[in-house]
Structures
1.
Amino acid sequence: MRRTIVLLSVVGMMVPLAAHALNEHVWLMVNGGAGTYDMSELNAEITAFNTANPGFTFPLVRNGASWGLAAGVDVKGGWSYGLGLDRLHAVTKASDASGSLEYQLTANAWHAFGEYAFKAMGRSSIVLGAGVGLIAENGNLIDSQPGYEPAKYKLTGSSPMYEGHTGASWWVTSRFGLVATGGYRYARIKALKLEGISMIGANGEALAADYSGPYARLGFKLAGNMDN
């Protein structure tokens, strides 16, 4: 997590410098939202486990909240380009008198994207965008038992990610605006790993963690005017 903050801070410093050299407009954005996930393979395993263990059941994983950071540059002709990170959250937990097991299925969605706005930055407009990047599992399995420190095991795995969105921007001032978008993300991690070893489903194949699905985001955007 600390490395993520440092990397985004570096990007946030480099983008304005590059844009200043090109005499373009830069922006920074923080956003929050939610989305649904296509965790059909994982949920099938959960359902089978719950059937066999009626006193120790996990909720199905269907959706989760997100937050994100992005930095980019607005160029001529209504186009804008940026780099961003969305932190996708999902959790499922089972517990009884003997303890609990909690799967914290947090994933980092790194993406480079482009957007087209029908009006220039600083003016309210409809926007269209698309991006490509990497979805990387960054969660934990936590095993808790009474009288013992919880044991934490790392969940990993990564795959390419693609997304597209549309929405609208509303500028309160020439430098501060709100951006609401909705879209679809394809983000299927083909092999979910526990401590570096692929988790295997009942079918004998690697278990996938699929964050694909529609999502909605609301962002707060700060624009800078890099005049020479």
2.
Amino acid sequence: MKKNKTLRFLEFIWILIGLTGTMLAAWTYMNNNKGQAAYFAVIAVVSAVFYNIRRKQRKELESGASEE
């Protein structure tokens, strides 16, 4: 059960990083700093990938625990 809470917390952190990266990318893009906005966009995409990995891992853990 503790592992499930940890994975849920990590999901939340990756979503938070992704949203922050998206907002910073939009803000820097609007301030005519397109090069720096690309870095924030990459951070947002990478965090979305890690969020999906953690979510899948948690779902597999939950389904494995319910089968036992």
